[in-house]
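Lay summary. Proteins are chains of building blocks that fold into shapes, and those shapes determine what they do. In this project we predict the shape from the chain. Here is one chain we studied, written as its sequence of building blocks.
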Amino acid sequence: MELPASNRMEKVINCFQKRPDAVARLICFPWAGGGSIHYARWGNVLNSSIEVFAVKLPGRESRAKEPFFLNMQQIVDEVVGVLLPVLKEKPFALFGHSFGAFTSFAVADALKKIHNLEPVHIFLSGASAPHSETRIKAPKRSELSDEDFLKWLMSIGGTPPELLSNPEVLKLFLPALKADLHVVENYRCEKPDVPLLSCPVTCFDGKEDVPHDLQAWKDITSGDFTTRMLDGSHFYLKDSGNEKVLLDYVTKHLETSEMDYL
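And here is the predicted shape, written in a compact code that computers can read:
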């Protein structure tokens, strides 16, 4: 049985602050294994001109009993299916970190190709462009044994050590993380012959993270392209100082995007 639109929206989108009068929406995509709460609370922090929608994927939070998605197309179909009507109402931007950078790009790609709809800005974080050599040559983490996988997790930081040493918590956390990595590691994307998009793209990254090929993201747009490096490693954006820099930047660009949109 098909859920009514409002219920489908609630299933897939976490929105702490409904803001019908907002000038723009920020749609946020989780990192691998991540939930929606981290971004949903941005709705409480950002001013009233921006409404924040945080994407909730199956297999976690209120969707814990649903099977994980197996490929990028399933994520794109669900997110676009639920959001399309609201994205036509007012300017929107996309934000994604790591795995979320790929999902936000895949969603933007589908919106443009199929619905001729484009965000006013894409904010990408902590990831090489999907068509870059750096990403194509990256080791496949989702195929590691749990033991090696945990070693890798500890090495990138961002996951509290007490969580990694708790077998019960790990049983809940690891499957979602591996499922997301499986999706991203099997996501294929050719270098575009011509830019798909014309909106501005900004890439953020942690200075101490493994190097990502941010410049290759420039190939996706004919619009402005900017990179911003912040202190910290892969989860630099969990630092409150960095979060403030990030959100101030997003706010400034979304508030002025309204002018460009008209």
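What the prediction tells us: The chain has one domain: 5-260.
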